[in-house]
Design brief:
This protein is mainly α and about 130 residues long. It contains 3 helices and no strands. Helix 1 runs antiparallel to helix 2 and helix 2 packs antiparallel against helix 3.
């Protein structure tokens, strides 16, 4: 809100200084156009920078969401590992431990591949968002 009032205040200050120095009316008009010529690209650049920062923050939010999904997927896997190690699934035999480890390794591998796929998609999604903005 203060940025929209800024050019008006600057234009008034420029008009007062020009009028007090007794310069003709054409220079006052030229000063107004010069200020508008400077202000418009500056405002557009600031707006684009804010949009790019918003895109970056959205991508960062997506990355955190994917990490939370990964951690939520891994929590039951660690619970299964604890159950296997403490023998809650039956007596601790080498066959039971080996099958439990194979199942846990498969679950961890699947979760890790999903995580890597999501991370690689973030890069492409971020590029697409930026190109859409540009």
């Amino acid at each position: 809100m203060t940025t929209s009032a800024f050019p008006k205040a600057s234009t008034n200050a420029a008009n007062n200084s020009v009028e007090s120095s007794s310069v003709d009316n054409n220079n006052v008009i030229n000063n107004k156009y010069l200020l508008a010529f400077w202000y418009q690209p500056w405002a557009e650049t600031s707006n684009s920078a804010a949009k790019l920062q918003c895109i970056w923050l959205e991508t960062l939010n997506d990355a955190f969401r994917h990490e939370i999904d990964f951690l939520a997927t891994m929590a039951p896997v660690y619970s299964k590992l604890t159950h296997c190690m403490l023998g809650f699934n039956g007596p601790l035999t080498p066959e039971l431990i080996a099958s439990c480890y194979r199942q846990i390794a498969g679950d961890m591998t699947e979760a890790t591949f999903n995580r890597m796929r999501n991370v690689s998609e973030l890069n492409e999604d971020f590029k697409e968002r930026i190109w859409c903005e540009l």
